[in-house]
Amino acid sequence: MHPVVLFDGECNFCDSSVQFIIKHDPKGRFYFSSLQGDTGEKMREKYQIPSSIDSIVLIEDDKVYYKSTAALRICKGLSGFWKIFYFFVVVPLPIRNAVYDIIAKNRYKWFGKKESCMLPSPNIRKRFI
Questions:
Q1: What phi and psi values does residue 11 have, to the nearest 5 degrees?
Q2: What pLDDT, in 10s, does the model give residues 58-115?
Q3: Are strands 57-60 and 63-66 parallel, antiparallel or unpaired?
């Protein structure tokens, strides 16, 4: 099974992050689902992801990763030098997540909120579940 990235479908920063992952994942390893969609809701139930979670979530090998750990594990799976960011996993989790939370808390203010979702090309669309 492919790793699945759950993201906030209303957030411009999250949308940009998904576009970034697609661009740096030429093998199409990662699949995507909005937290607000039907599939996202089903995955929340299946993996017991709290409804209070509105940040990036990675489901990989039937394990759920949140916040900075999800972001770093995604970097590890990308092509190019982005893999080196996984090194930051050595930073203690509370520190990593504190930085992540600052960005997450301000993402709508800094990057805006989407009124509609992007329409991916047919080639990319198959990676959205």
A1: -100, 125
A2: 999 999 999 999 999 999 999 999 999 999 999 999 999 999 888 877 766 776 665 5
A3: antiparallel
